[in-house]
Amino acid sequence: MEREAPSRLITMIKSMTGFGRGVVSTPTKKITVEIKSLNSKQFDLTLRVPPLFREAEPRLRQFLASELLRGKVEMSVTIESITAESSYSLSLNTLRAYKEQIEAMGRELNLPAPADWYNTLLRLPDAVHQEQSEMTEIEMNALMDAAKCAVGGLNEFRLQEGVRLDKFFREKVENIGADLNKTEKYEAERVPKIRKRLEEQLEKIPGIEYDAGRLEQELIFYIEKLDVNEEKLRLRSHLNYFIETLESDSSQGLGKKLGFIAQEMGREINTLGSKSNDADMQRLVVMMKDELEQIKEQVLNAL
After folding, report:
1. How far apart are CA 157 and CA 38, in angstroms?
2. Which of 104, 130, 156 marks a domain boundary?
């Protein structure tokens, strides 16, 4: 058997993108199976199998669904004869009937004869007859072995891509955490700025009298509404949970779970931005949003 795929790498997360190839030979045939996959919410399989191997389709579908779980998967099977004798022959009666009908059509419609009769006739349905009507048990086993080899190569490719995703996610989470830490500098300056701005606006109103104690209470109430400590705490918790999920023991449904966590991170970042009321903090929020959007894009490709 022949397998074309990268060497196996250890990681918890897999990508849905990959390619695998398996080749198995019987005494008379060389069977090649190629599989490629892209990201998809569900398992979406397209099979291209020669007519002789059509009876193997249900078994192949069940095997691929259990092994690959999710992704837009395309699988193609090709057969090559490795003996001097061929299992294919020309259907002369069919070709003769085709030629007579084409000539009759030409006379009726006043059309010229085809420039290349061979190319014209051999491309028509049933021009070539396959003498073998069904696959043998040896061929079925060889096909499944080639499919297993191709799936193994595809999974190794997915693991290699998973290593790249793992590194990417960790970098982005670290960047969001670093930006979040930077907000503390501006947060300490934010409350005095807000208080000063409100007091200055009040002073501009002519002839107004107010209770200083009541004003202080209202200022405290207003500033408390702008407090972002809870949002920061929850965002840090989500960042930690994202990394913990990356390192979890199972890769089953890991991509969907990471997507849900990313959504929760987005809610906290958005609330942080709406409460910040400070240009410097809002710039950091924009940077965090950009990092998060990149995470969301790549999460779609995680298995």
Report:
1. 12
2. 130
Note the pLDDT tens digit of each residue in 152-198: 999 999 999 999 999 999 999 999 999 999 988 877 777 677 777 77
Q: Are residues 269 and 224 in the same domain?
A: yes
Percent of the chain with pLDDT over 70: 84
- How sure is the predictor about 269, in pLDDT bands with cuts at 50, 70 and 90? very high
Structural domains counted in the chain:
2
Range of the domain at 107: 91-130
| 59-113 per-position pLDDT tens digit | 999 999 999 888 999 999 988 877 655 566 777 888 889 889 999 998 888 889 8
Residue 161 CA to residue 71 CA, distance in Å, equals 14
Q: What is the pTM of this model?
A: 0.69
